[in-house]
Amino acid sequence: MEQRESEAGEATAPSLGIGMVGYAFMGAAHSQGWRTAGRVFDLPLRPVLAAVAGRDRAAVRAAAAQHGWAAAETDWRALVARDDVQLVDVCTPGDSHAEIAVAALEAGKHVLCEKPLANSVAEAEAMVAAAEAAAARGQVAMVGFNYRRVPAVAYARRLVADGRLGALRHVRVTYLQDWLVDPAFPLTWRLEREHAGSGALGDLGAHAVDLAQYLAGELLVGVSALTETFVRERPLLAGVSAGLSGAATGGSYGTVTVDDAALFTGRLASGALASFEATRMAAGRKNALRLEINGEKGSLAFDLERLNELSFHDHTEPAASAGFRRILVTEPDHPYLEGWWPPGHALGYEHTFVHQARDLVLAVASGGRPAPSFADGLQVQRVLAAVEESAEKNAVYTPVQV
């Protein structure tokens, strides 16, 4: 870390060199977060976009230029070895999370890893072990569940923690998308188990599980599940056998090896019931993440498509005037809002990555344990594995013909 002076001669915060592996959708979102966090919030360390890594030399150089990275590497190992990189941000498909994260931690780097933490419980356990060993050396490791950083979601957690809902009864989370409805959509890496680990379950269900446990402040202790793959073969992509890039071919098909949808129920440690639905086959739903929590004293509800709003019902009020009320979460004393605009000026999806970068920088500077930790990511991984195990055991029931 290097401390510099501004043009006015004033000392600026020491730098924190960021190295990112992967540069596609999540890489672009994370780049936005790293570029912006230090310009909005007063941080003890100044994030510097040192280098980005990707296998395609031309593409990674273009991404570096577009998103503001000082250098580009075609080997993630070279990025990890760089002296100007103190924190490695892993934005690759799930099959490489464990290898990159563990290597970075063993090299003395802090680590941010996209969700889900890994493709298996065993990989996640190895990552947690590496993170625990690194913590003893003063390093931090965090998993990227960015929806925790929506101000309305963080405020909902505050309401639950303050006891405004009382004892919890029900938690409901649905995450609906439609990008796989068309059977002609090609076989990308997200549809192959060896790269993605699972389908809608890991991609969307991981967020749902993390949000349920985060907001409730307690863990799931049991699940019962169903999963389904509605389109079992899709057109292959030309040029890359792993389906990581390229265009759809004219007549060759490959097998989809992950789920299209997952539906499961669960029980929280307190006895509260939970239900979850994750699908990429809900026609007309683009990124519909919705949740509701009911307790003995009240309820709250959140819809990602109305990201700046939280619905809250105080059941202790007289019935004649009680009801759900809309809270516009844009006040300066709401979570994360101290760095942004005057009340009523809405934030967006990209701000969650700015807040994520902010929280991780603060953890690095203080030596504290960031949340969600790798251990939190392992807990979610164990739930996902239990869902898959339950779905395998829940055989299809065939009615008797009369």
Provide structural commentary:
The chain is globular, with a radius of gyration of 22 Å. It is an alpha/beta fold and 402 residues long. The termini are far apart. The strands form 3 sheets. An 8-stranded mixed β-sheet has the order 8-11-12-7-13-14-15-16. The longest helix has 20 residues, at 374-393. Helix content is 31%, strand content 25%.
Task: Give the key terms.
16 strands; 31% helix; globular
Q: How many beta strands in the DSSP annotation?
A: 16
Cα separation of the termini: 76 Å
Beta content: 25-35%
**Helix-strand makeup class:** alpha/beta
The major β-sheet equals: 8 strands, mixed
Would you identify the regions where 5 or more consecutive residues have pLDDT less than 50? 240-247
Indicate the mean pLDDT: 94
Helical proportion, percent range: 25-40%
Based on Cα principal axes, name the global outline.
Answer: globular
Q: So how many helices?
A: 10
Strand adjacency order, main sheet: 8-11-12-7-13-14-15-16
Quick structural gist:
The protein has ten helices and 16 strands.
Topology:
Blueprint: E1 15-21, H1 25-40, E2 46-53, H2 57-67, E3 71-73, H3 76-81, E4 87-90, H4 97-106, E5 110-114, H5 121-135, E6 141-144, H6 151-161, E7 168-176, H7 193-196, H8 200-216, E8 220-228, E9 233-237, E10 248-255, E11 261-268, E12 273-279, E13 288-295, E14 298-303, E15 309-314, E16 325-328, H9 351-366, H10 374-393
Parallel strand pairs: 1-2, 1-4, 2-3, 4-5, 5-6, 7-12
Antiparallel strand pairs: 7-13, 8-11, 9-10, 11-12, 13-14, 14-15, 15-16
Helix pairs in contact: 1-9, 4-5, 5-10, 8-10
